[in-house]
Amino acid sequence: MAFRIGRTLPPAAAPISLKDIMSGVAGLFEGESSRNWFEEELRDYYQVGHCFTVSSGKAALALILQALHDLSPERDEVLIPAYTCYSVPSAIIRAGLRVRLCDVSTETLDFDFDKLVEELANPRLLCVLPTHLFGLPADVERVKALARERGIFVVEDAAQAMGAEWSGSKLGSAGDAGLFSMGRGKAFSTVNGGIIVTDNDRIAVAIGKRFDAIPVCGALDSLKLLIYALAMSLLIHPWIFWLPKSLPFLKLGETRFDPDFSIRRLTSFQAGLAKGWINKIMVLKGTRAAIAEKITGYGIMSQYFQKTAIPDLIRFPVLLTDTDAKRDILVKSDKMGLGIADGYPDTIDGIEKLSTLPEGAKFPAAKDVAERIVTLPVHPFVKDRDVKRIAGLFKTMTTKM
Ligand SMILES: *Cc1c(COP(=O)(O)O)cnc(C)c1O
């Protein structure tokens, strides 16, 4: 990684303002009712009977998985895309379950449905996770139709799709349960945070039992989050972002496999931070859509959608011709501070510490994606001149290729 001083775009950002932090502090004083209020708004927005807010997306997923396993104790395997966020296998291991992988389609980043049908024959399968990666809508209905007849739960991983819509429907509430993340670099952020939604009463009771047993955050945790929110609201600005980016111990942008994370309820401070979230998400979505539009206007096309219908992306995915082109563009972007980023470092089977995978299984399409994909930033700090420079960089690449 090149060291750079000067304006540097982060790959993704949902800014937190000082005003948000003030409502966070107000939420802290309101206490419990601040979180109840947030959950009620979420139930209403997603038109679901039940909602639980917790410390992170992976905490949300771990709780859902434990609850589903409580309902079907004879089933202990979870099927996920072979190319996804490392938090997902972390949560599966944390829940005491086993990871199963399904190859993806290079064209959609969704499951390869021929492979999915084979994988769903597994009698130990507890649930399957259609995933809206970068905000690209996965075909949840198709997964549901296949999973239902086999008694397999469908958990919609909408960690990157809070507030996203496709064909007039909100993503995240179509499965037996769904989760969202409010971590840094997601569609909307409260520093950290996770949301569970479900319209299934039986599942909600099982999640509720697990939820009641998890600790509430203490005042010290809230104070830590407050300081972190202040730091984040400042350091995410492109004129300062080069600094945290250059500090290796912060490990920014690194996706780690780590099942040893804390599972807590969302703090009232974070619920306060979220105040006005529906409106904020609407504004963020509009900004990101306009930038994505500008990117396509320069002739940069993503394989993953038609120009006529760009999904609610949080990062704009592009598949390059080969892994050399990818390395080249990432090095140049780093020097220029353009915020072009890798997807994930490898496929899930490439995670060394994840040892419970079946031997010998191969995921060639997911590998291919991992080798060739980059994402372009579409967050509110991206200015017209940035899009122009990104387009310029792509032009030099394609003429050379
Ligand atoms: C970020 C993410 C998660 C986990 O969310 P955290 O809040 O970071 O724990 C789960 N799944 C996907 C696809 C994600 O991108």
Descriptive notes:
- The chain has 401 residues and is an alpha/beta fold.
- The chain has 14 helices and twelve strands.
- The protein has helices at residues 18-30, 32-46, 57-71, 87-94, 113-119, 140-148, 201-213, 219-235, 238-246, 268-273, 277-297, 323-336, 364-372, 384-400, and strands at residues 50-54, 77-81, 98-102, 125-128, 153-157, 165-166, 169-170, 177-181, 194-198, 315-319, 341-342, 373-377.
- A seven-stranded mixed sheet has the order 1-9-8-5-4-2-3, sandwiched between helices.
- Strand 6 (165-166) and strand 7 form a beta hairpin.
- The longest helix has 21 residues, at 277-297.
- It binds pyridoxal-5'-phosphate (PLP).
- The site of pyridoxal-5'-phosphate (PLP) has 14 residues, from helix 3 and helix 4.
